[in-house]
Give the backbone structure.
Amino acid sequence: MPAGRTRTRTIVLAAVSVAVALGFAAVVAVPAAKDWFQNRHDEAASYSSGKEAKGDRASVPRWLPDGAKRIEYAMKTTGGDRLLKATLPSATLPPTCKPHKPDPAPKPPGMKSAWFPKHAEQRAAARCDLYYAYMEGNTLYAWQANEDWVAANKA
């Protein structure tokens, strides 16, 4: 084979290899970078009781009963978005929670977690301070919207 053809073949194979490598990197790296960028300010924690959760984080709502169990909590460090899941001693909302009126429509959670239901805003039955909430058996699901938090914290 002439030297010119071998060199051309080597250049074409190298170019194709680089293109394949870049394509693979884009398929893997771009979604990973996007996920990291969007979730880099998310924090999550699990607690065995409401008392433990409130003792560990000042941002956990004070209305959460100390006797609540199996707490899942997530928050954005750049604002007021929060998610909360807890097993309560009974199928009753905490006493500070008030029935939620359908208008205005509740804001959807501003973050996601594998343990928090999708479309939770469609089930909001109460307001617990700034949190929208509902019960599913003894399980409390609650979330706080950043907009509500900002409005409540304006000086």
